[in-house]
Amino acid sequence: MLKHLSIIFSFFLTACTNSIFTSNTNSSQHQSSSSTQYPTQSSSVERNYFVGLWACEMNGGNIGSSNTVQLAQDGYVSYLGTFTIPKEDPLFQYQLERIGTWAFASDILTYQFNKSSFTRAHTFEMLKKIKTDKNLNAEENTTFDGLSAQMNNSSNRPVSLEVSNFTDQSFVITQKLPEITRTGICQRIVK
């Protein structure tokens, strides 16, 4: 079962590499100084709508994902994603941090990451199980090594998301991949 979940997670990470992000940047160059007009649910939006901090969740079958994304006026993006395998009663947890640039055109939000880090982020309880079960430990090492290699191979590929259903505080994201279509929602984080 874990090998099956690892394969699913591999497809998920290769395709997605995006979800919830947190920016620790207080630099004024990454802050929006313009006021944003928020759309109604059925209208289209302009690029400035996306500037800000967003919490996003995206489906991934048996994979849980949550991300925080900071989209700056100058086109900078920082992303922090947490992935759990499986989503229910997780055995493993990983963290993906990325920085790069973003663009918006024709209802497509595109990220181009130029720096990324993929690390283990297991809880204390997960670590306890992994360290006391040889098979689980071997599976975690195999999973981490495989996912790290995939992250390195896919790190320079752009991530494109179709965006829709805009409200003043949220929007829907859709990612169409060869093997699956993933959907999710992003909600504005107001400080």
Secondary structure: elements and pairs:
Blueprint: H1 2-15, E1 52-58, E2 64-71, E3 76-85, E4 92-105, E5 108-120, H2 124-132, H3 134-154, E6 159-164, E7 170-176, E8 181-188
Antiparallel strand pairs: 1-2, 1-8, 2-3, 3-4, 4-5, 5-6, 6-7, 7-8
Helix pairs in contact: 1-3, 2-3
Protein name: Lipoprotein
Keywords: Signal
Signal peptide: 1-15
Task: Provide the descriptors you would attach to this structure in a database record.
single chain, 191 residues, alpha+beta, eight-stranded antiparallel β-barrel, 3 helices, 23% helix, 38% strand, signal, Lipoprotein
Question: Overall pLDDT, averaged?
Answer: 81
**Main pleated sheet:** 8 strands, antiparallel, barrel
How would you write the strand order of the largest sheet? 1-2-3-4-5-6-7-8
State Rg.
17 Å
Structural class: alpha+beta
Identify the overall geometry.
elongated
Please tally the β strands and state the result. Answer: 8
**What percent of residues adopt helix (DSSP H or I)?**
10-25%
Number of helices, where a helix is a run of at least 4 consecutive DSSP H or I residues: 3
Work out the strand percent: 35-45%
**SSE order, as H and E?**
HEEEEEHHEEE
| Low-confidence runs | 4-42
Q: Tell me the span between the first and last alpha carbons.
A: 41 Å
Protein name: Lipoprotein
Keywords: Signal
